[in-house]
Amino acid sequence: MKTLYLILIAVLVLSMILIPLAASGHMREPDKASKKVTEKEPENLQKKSGDIFTVYDTESKKSQKLTAKEYICGVVAAEMPASFQP
């Protein structure tokens, strides 16, 4: 009788681990198509680095056009606390 309980507990524990893993996709082998997408991502990011953002300045009440680099540097600087030491 004890062995039956141990087997039942082992099956339950394994099912609690394996079913969520199978559902989330961690047990699947990656598709070839997904590998191609990840290989192309850096190329796509380089093309987008020249994007232009239009930003409204509330103090001067004017719109400014900024490159992606200028925009990201400004956003990161604005979000950093004044006490941050690099």
Short description:
The protein has 86 residues and is an alpha+beta fold. The chain has helices at residues 2-24, 32-48, 68-79, and strands at residues 52-57, 62-67. It has a domain at 50-79.
Written overview of the protein:
The chain has 86 residues and is of the alpha+beta class. It has a domain at 50-79. It has helices at residues 2-24, 32-48, 68-79, and strands at 52-57, 62-67. A two-stranded antiparallel sheet has the order 1-2. Strand 1 (52-57) and strand 2 (62-67) form a beta hairpin. It is elongated and about 80 Å long. The N and C termini lie far apart (64 Å).
Strand content: 5-15%
Tell me the number of strands.
2
Based on Cα principal axes, name the global outline. elongated
Major sheet attributes? 2 strands, antiparallel
* Through-space gap between termini: 64 Å
Q: Roughly what percent helix?
A: 55-70%
What's the Cα radius of gyration?
26 Å
Note the run of SSEs as H and E. Answer: HHEEH
Strand order of the largest sheet: 1-2
Arithmetic mean of pLDDT: 76
Helix vs. strand class: alpha+beta
Unreliable stretches (pLDDT < 50, length at least 5) are none
Number of H/I helices = 3
